[in-house]
Amino acid sequence: MNVYVAMIGKSYRKHLVYRSEVWVRIAIGVVWVAIQVAVWTALIGEDEVDGISLSDMITYSIVNTVMALAMMDRSLAELDQRIRSGDIAVDLIKPFHYPLTLVVDGMGRSLFSALFSVLPTLAIAILFFGFQAPASPVNVLGFVVAFVLALSISFALACLVGMLGFYFLATFHFQWALGALRTLFAGTMVPLWFYPDGLRTLANLLPFQHLAFGPAATWMGELTRAEIGRNLGLGALWAAALLGICWWMWARIVRRLVVQGG
Amino acid sequence: MTIGLFCHYFRLRVRERMEYRGAFLIGLVSQGLAYAAGFTVIWVLVNRFGTLGGWVWEEIAFLYALNLMSYAIGAAFTYSQTELEGMVQKGTFDGILIRPLNPYLSLAAQQFNIGYVGHLAIAMSILIWSLGNLAIDWNVANGLFLVLAVIGASLIQAAVLTLLGAWSFTFVRATFLFGFAGTLQTFITYPITIYGATIQVILTAIVPFAFVNFYPASVLLGKEGHLFPGWIGWLTPLVGVVVFWGAYQVWMRGVNRYQGAGG
Hints:
The complex is a heterodimer of chains A (262) and B (263). Chain A has eleven helices and two strands.
């Protein structure tokens, strides 16, 4: 266990090397928020649409941008290269559970981005654009749980796509396809309550809404307590199911893995 | 000689890429999905509210098509600039320098990315659809202008990537900047009049992304009343040539001062 805690620290220090590039990540976050604020200002202005005001949408955009920055996870994107090059064999020889080392590596990275890009972006965005406090302590608690579920689902999806690298030469197309589904159904940019009915129904059947729309709507108090509860329950089911599939796939793969080259 | 060599490298590159036809096609499909998803989200947004900053959905789609099309054309030749960092670090860039062809052209041909035909097909479809639904009074002048504007816009897109590539010669690390350029490019998904004056000035005079789609579209759609007079859209081809020429000069200067790194 101590080993894994130490790995978090190592991963954090590894990313610390890139702190000179942190301002770019902050700039990207702030520009994202600025674009969305301009769009919502043009669309909503002083009015309210479906009971949603401009200040609601600014908060929604900031929460989502910050979550997206925290989830920018590339540690699994390189899995297919490690498989192709044969480096994966070395990873497997080490006396650790390899998927767990990926989780731990991601945690170190998240710690780094939390301190160096998420918090500064949040501070700047709040300073420039304003921010609504959460509706109640229940919403904060709900948001924290929803965010942890979002991180788990995001990791599980990336892991599933990464493991396709054991069956296919490259996984970048699957990453694109996954990105497409996230773009369309997570509600990162446009909240699902503005979606037409057909797309909304489809989004509700898929896990992607738990990555962005669910946590943000929970924070804003746009959902009733019953809805928050149901959302978290569904999110937990998705997280458990997807992580379970990852685990099962991994166990199968390791048993039949044949490494060439390297 | 130069043109012949350029075409020769170009042909070799396309044949190399076509060797893995299945992977190439899957790549096109998945990329198409990614763009379709992004486009659908913008549709959801504009469709829900009717107009955005006074622009209707067909006009926003036209902006999208111009941006994607010029990016596809410009980036097909210059996307290799994003790989320059790795080439400089590994020393493989030195191989480009000993070719009997101008290093910029060598790189453009040898690393030509044919994968952008997918972008081009999507952009073409959206362009034709949007033009079919927009009441533009076509004549020879504005037809010719549209073609020249797309070329100018492609040159602007190529210039931005070229400048960032030039950064690799001096500072070696450049990849993180490409992400930022991509983020700046999302500004022009929407008509720039929705932004404050500062951002409009930046997008017009400093990083002239507004000339990629907003100004030429304003000319063709007869839009008026923004920070700058509407007629500057006619300058798009000229802006493209000037900006690209400037970027090329900076790049060549970078090559001439290039000392190699690692290897």
